[in-house]
Automatic annotation (TrEMBL):
Superkingdom: Bacteria
Signal peptide annotation: 1-19
Organism annotation: Roseovarius azorensis
Keywords noted in UniProt: Signal
Protein name, per record: DUF2155 domain-containing protein
Amino acid sequence: MKRLWPGFALGVFATVAGAQEPASVGSGAVLRGLDKINGQVIDIDLANGEGADFGSLRIDLAQCRYPEGNPAGDAYAFLTIREQVGGQELFSGWMLASSPALNALEHPRYDVWVLRCKI
C-alpha cells in the first residue's frame, strides 16, 4: 500500500495543478468532419453558439477554450451533435483537439473532431 501512496499523491497534485491553469475563450472553433463511406473530409467553421449541418448530423458549438497564453495549444470545445431526422442526441460534452478518441462521437458513418479555437 505504501507503494501506491507516492503515485497517488503525484496524480492528485498534477490534477489540481492542471485544473488551476486558466483558460481563454475563443470566438469559435474549427472542426473537421469525415464521412467514412465516401471519404469526404470537410472543415466546419463555427462561432460560439452557432450550429452547422454535416451529412445527416446537426453540430452545435457552445464554446471553445484554449490554454491562456498559448492560443496554438490544446483546444477543447463543448459540442452537441444530433441526428437531423428525429433529433436523437449522439454526443454532448467537451471534445479535446489533442485527444479526439478520449471523448469521441460514436457513429457508424461520421467522425467529428476539434482542430482549434478561433481567436
